Description:
Largest sheet: 2 strands, antiparallel
Distance between the termini: 121 Å
Strand content: under 5%
Helix content: 55-70%
Number of helices: 18
Amino acid sequence: MSSSSTGDDEPDDFDLPAVDDDVVSTGAAADSSDWDERLKGLPRLLRYAMLVSDSADHVEQRLMAEIDELCPNLPLNAAWAAALDAVTGRALATELDHRAVIQNEPVLRSLADSVRLLCLPVLRDASFFEEYRRVGKALLHAFKEVALKSTDEQLCCDIERFVFGWAALPASTDLLSKNFPAAPNAAILGMRMAEHRIAAARATVRRQLKEEETWKEEREAEAKATELPQGLGSRAAEAIPDHHLVVARLSKDDMKSSKLKETMRFCRPCLRTSPRSAASTKAGCHPSTAPSTPLSRAIGAGARCAACAVSSRRCCANAIPAQRGISQEIQTNHRTKNESPHLPGCP
């Protein structure tokens, strides 16, 4: 089929067939069945770059179907479908650029750059350098716009990897495979460019997580060391009589301290220890275990001290002095003279 001339600067008729219907239908079917929602809204050039990165099927055929839709029966499109080489692809891209100007259709520019993206081989000499640079600039501009608007961080990472992999192609030919076109090599090169940065970032995250876990374990260990055994607090609260104040609780290990014992020797008359402790029982601090004396019986019955008008349980420290042998004379004077001195231990 021939192409009609639209101006003096357009090429003459081409004796080339139209694009094979099978190629067009294959590309359209691949685009329809393998649609990725995350690529929706991307510029055409970046969309094809991501298809190459994802190793999608029939990428060239998808582009041929789009070209055939916008420029039906374009002979060079059919030629590229048959040959799939760089020379024919470059001729097709040039024709699309020409039509974009003549027909005032800028969308054809993106088709031209997409053809170059898919057809260019790995750069070995200066033959295709201008085409490389043209595609590289288009990729960078498109990525800049997407990065400003997109909220998909993973998609931006994938695009960045391909774009800068393409930019590094001319200087990395020795690292690339000669059996693949430029686009797949750009994706591979982009992945290798960030290997050490990704490894360093992962190591940093792992170290931070480990430090946080260690810190948390240390805090939990300190909390367990300072908290009371389970149930101890409630039992101690139940054992506290009315009008008493707990100023300290000492463990068995603390009670073994010689310095503490020396201090407690002077303070014992004015302190009440827990009724469950052996020291309390031995000293006779608990009313239920105290020796039976008139004064202790009065205290046990809730007697009041006339001098301070409070319960003897509060002011007399459980009559420890009486239990240790307060003279009967003091007790007798207390009863017979009808006087009201403080009971022993009253404030």
